[in-house]
Amino acid sequence: MPVSAETVSDEPEELVRFRQQWLEELRSKKKAAPSQDASTSSAAAPPASPEATAPPHSPPAHHHTQRRLSHARPSSPPSARRPSAVAPAPIGPALQRAIEIYRNAVYHEQRSELDEALRLYRTAFRLHSNVDRAYHMVEEEMLRKATASSDAAGPPKAHHRKTSSGADAVDALVQGMQNVDLSSGRVPVAHALGEGFVTGTLANLVSSWPPNLSFEAEDPQQGVPIRNIPDELLMIVLRMLDHTALERFARVNRKARVVTLDASIWRPMVHRVLKPPQIPEEEELETLVLKYMTDYRRIYIEHPRVRFDGVYIAVCHYIRNGIGETAWVNPSHLITYYRYLRFLPDGQVLSLLANEELSPQQVIPLLKPTLRTKGFFIGNWYLEGTEVHIEDLVEPGGSDMRYSFQMILDLRSRPLGRWNRLDFREYDSVHIGSGEATPLALKNERPFWFSKVRSYA
Predict the structure, then answer these.
(1) Cα–Cα dist 83/286, whole Å
(2) How far apart (Å, rounded) are the C-alpha atoms in residues 70 and 62?
(3) Is 343 exposed, middle or buried (CB count within 10 Å of its CB: 0-12, 13-18, 19+)?
(4) 263-277 mean pLDDT
């Protein structure tokens, strides 16, 4: 159907010129090289920019394509062009800025900084809607250039891939673990009596020391009286100390460290502490000793245990609203109360709930099974792994009791010291008649922290 002059005159001049150029280009392609060369040329030519990949129905992309075809037409026919000569158009400053922000967002995401990564992703997509495609195209182009340069330079001696700081840290950690020598897991230690073995972190350190060690004076002009004491007599003296005093003495020098590693010193401590309810009755102590390769010191320090030489104290707070003299003033009262837990070796546990009127200095000397006061309970306890189970908490001497209490706490070591914290996991009220347990709220409860008491040791 022929097009009338009125219809042509109504169309924009730029659109008419674009249609004529498009028709001329189609005719020239048909008269040019064979179809095979034309298909190869069209398949090898990459897109000029991320904007050119936009869908046809998008008005900004269509206008950009139209302007590009009308003003950037090559002077030579299509048959004279080669695919390798086609280069992508330079990226605009706005898109470069968006790609840089997108790259920073990827970096923060790899470091698990998700809030910052999300903020940067949003900023990048506000600057350009196709920034993700442009970023991947730029990365692929950089990788292609790096591969081409490495191929031209010849086979390298070692291939190094650019990774993030998190991946570098993981690679360094793996390399460090490969260099760790685990062959000396059990190293004999010089000793006078008993079986002295050290494992774990001290193994490599002690194995590097000379076999003949002695106490040396810091000042050569002064003598060392402890050098005259035989090791057998020194061992008897060390058996009378607790673990804290032993470790302080071990920090004097190498000789002191080696002497305190003797199994005859730590074995009585392990047998005195690690027995039911610290360990299950079916678990034999010999099995536990073999698990730690007869290193009694390591058993005493690293194996979970409830401490008997002190008391666990939790300081709790809550806010109670008061009543003022006028409607304009409503006071709030900060209420402080204390929870005490003292574990006994025979499987009993003493629990006391006291207010701030009784300070810990006043309560600790009185915390015994013979105590009779409000908020005092006696129950039973046992340890399973790192879980402390407390059951049958009742008031002593009570005749008409309907409820008892039970707790489950997590035993932890932090920040300094060993097994010095108890975290609440469950706290239930148990009906004695039916055995039904009702969970109690733990809103105001705080962890228990261990406090050593000399009179308890």
Answers:
(1) 79
(2) 12
(3) buried
(4) 92
Q: Which residues contact 433 (CB under 8 A, 6 or more apart)?
A: 402
Count of CB atoms within 10 A of residue 99's CB?
23
Q: Rounded mean pLDDT of 14-27?
A: 78
Cα–Cα distances in angstroms (integers) from residue 140 to residues 16, 96, 134, 242, in the given order: 39, 15, 10, 66
- What SS3 state is found at 451? strand
Query: Burial of 33 by CB count in 10 Å (0-12 exposed, 13-18 middle, 19+ buried)?
Result: middle
Average confidence (pLDDT) over 104-125: 84
Between CA 80 and CA 258 the distance in angstroms is 87
Burial 192-219 (b: 16+ CB within 10 A, else e): eeeebbbbeebbbebeeeeeeeebeeee
> Beta-carbon neighbour count of residue 402 at 10 Å?
8
d(CA 226, CA 252): 12
Place of tokens 């028709």: 23
Alpha-carbon distance of 380 to 345, in angstroms, equals 11
Over residues 318-324, mean pLDDT? 88
Between CA 425 and CA 253 the distance in angstroms is 43
Query: Phi then psi for 190, rounded to 5 degrees?
Result: -65, 130
pLDDT beyond 90 at 40? no
399 secondary structure, DSSP code: S
**What counts of helices (H) and strands (E) characterise the chain?**
16, 11
pLDDT above 70 covers what percent of the chain? 73
Residue 452 has pLDDT above 80, yes or no: yes
What is the DSSP-derived secondary structure letter of residue 86? Answer: -
Single-letter residue type at 437: A
Contact 383, 277 (CB under 8 A): yes
Q: CA angle at residue 217 from 213 to 223, to 5 degrees?
A: 110
- Maximum pairwise Cα distance, the chain: 124
Please report, for residues 28, 49, 116, 147, the alpha-carbon distance to residue 45 in angstroms, rounded to integers and kept in the order given: 18, 12, 38, 20
Which tokens belong to 314?
């939790």
Tokens 């048959």 belong to which residue?
Answer: 79
Given pLDDT bands bounded at 50, 70 and 90, which one contains residue 389? very high
Instruction: Give dist(CA 313, CA 353) in Å, integer.
Output: 10
Closest Cα to residue 131, out of 110, 88, 101, 164? 101
Nearest of 118, 114, 115, 137 to residue 126 by alpha carbon: 118
Q: Distance between CA atoms of 343 and 144, rounded to whole angstroms?
A: 68
pLDDT in tens, 178-195: 554 444 444 444 343 445
| H/E element, 17 | helix 13-31
Which tokens in the block code for residue 136?
């991947």
